[in-house]
Protein 1
Amino acid sequence: MIPTVEQLRSLNTEQLKEVANDVRATIISTLSSHPGHLASSLGTVELTVALHYVFNTPDDKLVWDVGHQAYAHKLLTGRADRFASLRTYGGLSGFPKRDESPFDAFGTGHSSTSISAALGMATASALQGNLKRQHIAVIGDGSMTGGQAFEALNNAGVSKANILVILNDNGISIDKAVGGLSHYLTRITASPRYNRLKEQVWQNLNRKPGQRPHRKTISLLQHATFFAKTALLGGSNLFESLGFRYFGPIDGHNIDQLTEMLQRLKAINGPKLLHVVTTKGKGLPPAEHDPITYHAPGKYEANTGRRLANAGTDCPPRYQDVFGETLTELASDNPNIVAITPAMLTGSSLNLMKDRFPARVFDVGIAEQHAVTFAAGLATQGMIPFCCIYSSFAQRAYDQIIHDVALQRLPVVLCFDRAGLVGEDGATHHGAFDISALRPIPNLTIASPIDEQELRNMMLTATHHTDGPFAIRYPRGTAVHTQWHTTMHDLPVGKGVCIKEGTDVAVLTIGHVGNDALTAASEAEKQGVNVAVYNMRFVKPIDKQLLDNIAAAGFRHIITVEDGSLIGGFGSAVVEHFAQTSPQTLSYTTCLGIPDCFVSHGTVRQLKTDCGYSETDILKKILEK
């Protein structure tokens, strides 16, 4: 039985190791049949146990960056009996969530936010006169590459805030960590000279808390600082340069060492950074060997870790795989095509192009802002950059899309993966707002394919579009056709198409939900209602001539359907045009999509029903008199 936090604090360190084993076994067993983020949480089990053992949570504030690694935290904080409901409709969130538990000090889901949040909490505590409260941010080496993390370090280092940053260094985020920081951390952890000295320091510090350090210990600490700054790093330690007291690296799976170090750090005021080295996927050999695949492996055998077979080869592919294969195909014909991703190489299937053209694919780390402006720079020199970002994460690069790309009318192809509802990852990951955010931006073309064949055609069209940026949004998951390797052709920009003729009701769609509309329309035909379905393809420029034809056709009901926010979205664009050209249509026009709320987690089908634009909901609107 997994203890509560209160019970945990009454145990000795040997018992803590047993708790860690039980927690790890529970994660492995539960996620084998209830898929989630596996490898990240396996890598932080001992660290989580030590943190809750040493610190007085929830009064002491513990913030988990991103939250992929927080499953052990959920198990220890009163949610073990509901753990199997993780990421299911009405169940536990896959990420820390403030209204789920008082132990979740800050809601997360995107990367690089933890240090900023913890600094804000520490500053508030100081202003309120609570100088004893501890504030801990646990951040991975991948998230540490995000610009916001560096901004927060820069601010926190010159403050007097009582903040402890724990750098969880496993050399990987989702894909392998990239960039200068990764190399820097490797230099620290791999230096034999540094690690010999560290062990000497640790042995001298290995005494009871509160016991005064010996002069020899102080001398060794001074030498350790000296070596880290000069012999090892050839200059000042990065974190110490920013004003942090740096400790480590230490073994993130050694509970004795972790609890001892954390106890000592509690007594040190001001900004501190503890560097812990962990193994992503710890305790499950296949996950340790292949942490990229086992970041979120789906279902697997609990005792062996062997992944269970996915859908057969006769099923349609995933949209991202079509994207990756198509881009590789286009790149083989055009040497100016390059690809950029902010740490989502495998998730966006750009690994397929990287295998073929490694010099033309750039994983820039968790840095969406940099990714977009980097793409803009490439475009100024005649390259055709495909910048692929998950829709929800692209929100971070909004300024760069406006200022660095659209304002300069640069032909960057912005690829928004995971657009619309994404399912079990929930509110932090739904791509609900991209259409609404992008529509007001001048010079920007916005397209969304109904299927993977149209995605291929839009990608080809984008390579020939030189009059400003071209955005393509496509959903997560399974596409439509099994035979999708069709010959590509250019699409007329800003033009929609009627994909089903009808006279009673018109359904206007954008993107993958057009397939739901076709299904609903076919069912309505069986009930005597003749339905026309229009695949508009482009939100901007929208096909005004087609809209005028629809308004003049005498339909009794016009319905728009989109997998995005209703406020400012595709339906809004249609209604805005009707308001100017045929206001009489507004009385019989209905818009379906994501309402004014943050949508929770569950299957996409469940969430579409909640939002009112499932196949059934579309059919109900079609049948209304």
Protein 2
Amino acid sequence: MPRGRPRKTPEAAAAPAAPKKARDNGATLGFEAQLFLAADKLRKNLEPSDYKHVALGLIFLKHISVAFEAKHAALLAEEASLAEDSDEYLAENIFWVPPAARWSALQAQARQPEIGKRIDEAMAALEAANPQLKGVLPKDYSRPALDTVMLGELIDLISGIATGAPGEAAKDLLGRVYEYFLGGFAGSEGKRGGEFYTPRSVVQTMVEMLEPYQGRVYDPCCGSGGMFVQSEKFVESHGGRLGDIAIYGQESNYTTWRLAKMNLAVRGIDADIRWNNEGSFHKDELRDLRFDTILANPPFNISDWGGERLREDDRWAYGAPPVGNANYAWLQHIAWHLAPRGRAGVVLANGSMSSGQNGEDAIRRAMVEADVVDCMVALPGQLFYSTQIPACLWFLARNKNPGGGLRDRRGEVLFIDARKLGALVDRTRREFSDEDIRRIADTYHAWRGQPEAGAYADVPGFCKAASLDEIRAHNHVLTPGRYVGAADVEDDEVPFEERFAALKARLDSQFEESDQMIEAIQKSLASIEHAR
């Protein structure tokens, strides 16, 4: 991949990126949503979980064709003999697309009854020409359940994406569409969708807090790869280069692993993503590696993780996790994989912060006393597709006194209560705004002592830097609400005492009105009885 962009200064890195201008190809706000709705209408009675692979596979094929055709045109202009040399493409990390697999060929046959078979052949040819795609692409478009008319209409719809845009702009747009479709299908699938997709605003919050500028980034349950995409976006938006971070992951669901491979390929991201059906606990593919940044959204409260077969595992440095809940197995697996100065962000169910069942409180106490817990963030409800249960973010650090101008944080944990942040984007789901994400990340950075973030100060109702003694006083429960207290001033800037007095006065007045109404009713009833 091309390299050479200078890295920005820390002060520049802390500044928010300038908003992108709308492109001339119609990619204004809502373009992806309109496209998704149009594509969703075509699926008719096909289940979203099935149609997802149909649509995403075709978007992927269109994306790599756009990249290939742009390079193909450039080589034709330079020297025609080079245009069909696959090495010319592979040297620039562009997939070689055989003639039969090129989008223009499929588009020309979109209305033919054999279009499903043609797509399958194109996918097979693409895998044969690019070993890194082996076993990744869907190849069941010719099955009877798929309506060929629908396939043709979907090809026509996708053909319109990025029409007329220059090469890089077209690739970027297709990447955006792919990402939006992943989220759209996750919403359509509900609980099942949460198994492969973490909402973008949650991932952005974790990435902005951890700032993975360089080094190894790992996700032991990587789903469709959203953590990696946002990490690469962070690096590029702060003056780094694609490839400054080395990406590693593991996924136990084969179908989801294929989605991750395609998602990263769409973005041009090189990664070592492993699959096996035993999962990270029982077959840790990367056991000997340690990582600078770990980002993970493990399945919440999973009970059938096979913990009874791992009672003596080296990873359980703080105590063997209960066989009926994998939350503390995930936390310890992740802590075990941290490099000497590594940090991790983990999404878990709220119960992980306070549970006292099956020895979880003892493990939590051991982790706190070992000073591996860095920050806890309470999240609002309705952020996730898979559950309406509120979740939290755990941030772990191998070394809380790393030097380099940062503050010595040993003996402290930062608590952030973000339950009041975010806004509903529909009836069932909430998202953090860019301002919400910046507020959470800046608070964490200031507490760490990053100069560009300014001085840290506790904010009642929002954040508190608590000592180990304070945490011990709460029996090592890590729920932020126990530490941050109540806000002194609400958004209207009226002090709590004044608001309380006003509410009490209003309540007294309502009680008085109620007494008067009761008295009037009793008099009316008495007069009716007397009249009888």
Protein 3
Amino acid sequence: MRWDNLRLDDAVDRPDVPLIERRAVTRTFDTPGFRGITCYEIHAKSIINKVPAAARLPFTWTINPYRGCAHACRYCCAGDTPILMADGRTRPLAEVRVGDRVYGTEHTGGHRRYVATEVLAHWPTIKPAYRIALEDGTTLIASGDHRFLSDRGWRYVRGGEHGPDRRPHLALDDTLVGTGAFAEPPKDTAGYRSGYLCGVIRGGGAAGGEALERARRYLADFGVRPPAMRHDTTTAAVARIVEWPRDPEDDWHKGFLAGVFDADGEFGHGVLRVFGSDPRLIEQARLALRALGFDFAVAWRRRRGGRPVHDIRLRGGLRQCLRFLHTVDPATTPKRSIEGAALDGDASLAVASIEPLGLDLPMYDITTGTGDFIAGGVVSHNCFARKSHEYLDFDAGHDFDSKIVVKVNAPELVRRELAAPKWAGEHIAMGTNVDVYQRAEGRYRLMPGILAALRDAANPFSILTKGSLILRDLPVLAEAAERTDVSTAVSVGSVDTDLWRLVEPGTPSPHKRLEVCAALNDHGIGCGVLMGPVLPYLSDSPAQLEATVRQIAAAGATSVSAITLHLRPGAREWFFGWLRAHHPELVGPYQRLYGRGAYAPKDVQERISRQVRELAAAYGIDRRDHRRPPAPPKPARATPAPRPEQLPLL
């Protein structure tokens, strides 16, 4: 099910019409526990969902009566906003696609640096537009909900100083971070092509790969069979193409500089150079750079076996290097890489004006692996669409419950799908994507009907939760446990209350969750503990693991299994942002641990799992068994279980 600006594509027949105008009922509740939460009530088409194999989870089927995403309604920039792609070129935001590689940023070595990252999601919508003008002439069109990185941190385009709209927002003279507006790429004219051929053939370098392919294509455009590419002017046709022009136009200058750079140029660490031993070529390169407004220095340099060459070095830092690369568009992609370069800070990117356009315009946003991307030459925040809308993930972020989709017909669907001839009675896991006992369940009460359907079908199931509301359903859980295999678990990664307040401030405390575990086991419903996520360097020391397992054992848990933190896209961005704010000294170690993917190295995972297993054995947890054997149905209990107060959940 895809969340797309109040739109659920698989729940309606017309995805082009907003959900709220069709079959959803939108509700807000004026109570402290629901402040800031909007519920969208829908009638889903199906409810028992198969888990994708790529999710790496130990079950096949799940039920999710709720869906939610905190940032799904915040879309950002106009479709023609140029995005810096990982090949060094730009592409309009509207044309970026999932799987493309773009540049984002990461904090490493005390600097924010460019890194290539993958586009994970892309969404369109229509929003009121604002124009943000910067002192250097950069103009950005974005919605009021979009965020840019400034010298004061992330700032929304618009916000209030007081009341419900209060949030950090841009003000005049705030300075955005980046290089400023990107240069327009050259037009593919005959002048550009002849200039490129002149530069690459006369350049004296060993052009190959993409440069060679471009040169051959351009020669073919002129009707010339491609010759060898080093100083090859042996044919009259080629000689005519690469003659020095008397009064070259800008297109020729751009092509010539691209060819010279491809033939014998380099770019790295914020420095761009071209080399040459031919005085005429160097003079022509100087004329072209001046014509296009570049500042540069020329020096002699010995290289390649001591041979002296002219060295033309571009001045102006990364900003001017990017302007050169975009203006002339060399063919060789590896030479255009800015991977690892620190963001240039010499651009005049102070906010000069912010004005509403008075129009609703098509807007687009993307989710990337780094949590940001480069739009219009400045650092732009992701739309943090929760990746659990696309595939299952154990770790639900703290933002996930502010926009809640409620499948109000879930109990009826469960009963119908369990009765279908094709259903084989397989185990169903709940609470694996979003908590089925989140705050909304206290109002909508979908779980009693779902559990009753599972009980009546004698279908095995399990529930993972972080909340206490599960105790409300003790009677029906107990009845189901008499007919089939029922297991429950609470997640407790650590009993360190200081760490809990920082990492999971919206959840019941670890001690409250262990009280839930004890209550379930006291009523004969086996409850284990999923000890996760265990955070490397923060909650994985031997003393911390021992303290957590000791209290888990005291709660009567039937089992304990450790899960080391894993950072899939979505959770990764949130966690690294938190880490930079609270433990900046651990950013580097975490980047080394999770630099190659979502999971910590196997030796780290195995060490934590082994220690927890040994502790569990020492405390006798692995010898407990609270499960009851199947028995004939019993009448419903006359005395209802107490209904505890529901606490906030992740």
